[in-house]
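Checklist before submission:
- one chain only
- standard amino acids only
- sequence pasted in full

Submission:
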Amino acid sequence: MPSSPRLAPGHRPLRTSPRPALVPSSAAALLALGLLGCGDDGGGLADAAPGLADARAGADATPEPDAPPPQVTLVATDGDGPLAGVRVAFLDAADAVVLVTTTDASGMARASLPLGGKVLAAEVGAERVNLWLGARPGDVLRVRYGDSPPTRLLDVAVPALPAQGNVYEVHTQCGDGAGTTSPVSVNLPTACTSSDVAVVARDDVGGHAGGFLATGQTLPPSGTLDLSARTFTPAVSRTFTVTGLDSGEFTSLNSSIRVGASGISIPGLSGFGTVAGGAFTATAAQADLPGADWVTRVIDRIPNGGQLLYQRAAITTTSFDVGPVRLVEPTVPTYAEASREVTWAVGSTGRPYDGVFVQVRFLLADQTSQRDWLIAAPGGAPSVRLPPLPPELADLDPGVDPFASAAALTGFVVPGGYDRARGDLFVVSDPGDFLEGAGTAAAVQVSLD
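Returned file contents:
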């Protein structure tokens, strides 16, 4: 079959800056679990439509006795906020139509859906169809289309660089900036008005010379945020070793410093090379910030793609054994027109998937236009099926004339499993965002031919 699409990563829950979502990319650039979003400017959960927190609260609330089960809610946004007019279909587990509707002015559509139902959302222009399988009552399913949100530049005044420092990095919950002189310009969404702010001085060999954290800062709509009176805390030399690798393989290690509950992510020590003795080690000076954890990502090369293996641990942690985290290895997925199924096979070694993200790209009848189906499904059976569509959405049906130009598979394991990930798969840019505290791990498998 033709090569699988090399698509721009499309998901970060705690950020408001645009981030692509989890879609399959090249094995070398497996930077997004990004199970989703083809070509959109996906961002984090903080970008979701107004009222989303209320929707979550309602989904989590304990129902009154004899109350009906909570509804399933679809939330659609674009760069300007809630997106009305997205076509939505709610189907039960047997493909019977429960409701066909469109998102309202709040970007939402709701229906009472039994366990195991399906939800389909069609982008305006119909270049992309999102499909969730295995939905549950109370789910809040998020999808993002369109452009990035409006932004502004904020200048941040910073103190003089410490010894060995030559570049400033400014990191917020909303966006980042870098520069060699003060002030440093940071590109922020206009809606971002407050954040913790981490400032790091980077040296000329890829490490840090120092850093500091300014909590609870009000971010003015214009002008300058003055942090020039702050003091850099000296960096600490840290060594990190990844074990459980296959000797002779080429691997890479990238870490980030995650600062407490703020979700700020600062690029940390990294390295790449050929594994010797089943282990790989990197050393660099790193910023010493309060409340910080390590999130370590290892790219593990295998046939048919690669795996991203994640660990979140205390900043004092010095190693990551990837052996227990590795996933089963899949074959390249194929699409069968007659059955409308994407199928694959998996090996016997490794952890089974909690869930999968499957992408099928169809070349339409005009031989020029394309449509992507992006499917989120629970793990288990090595196949997913496109359901028959109601008449209101017949124009989206692949039919038998268009043909699938490519199919790609992303399998994953995250804390909380598919139930935790399902609602956010189409908006999360980094699988590490599912690691909400130290002592957690995740893995992502991308299959490409």
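Reviewer check: DSSP finds two helices and 30 strands in the chain.
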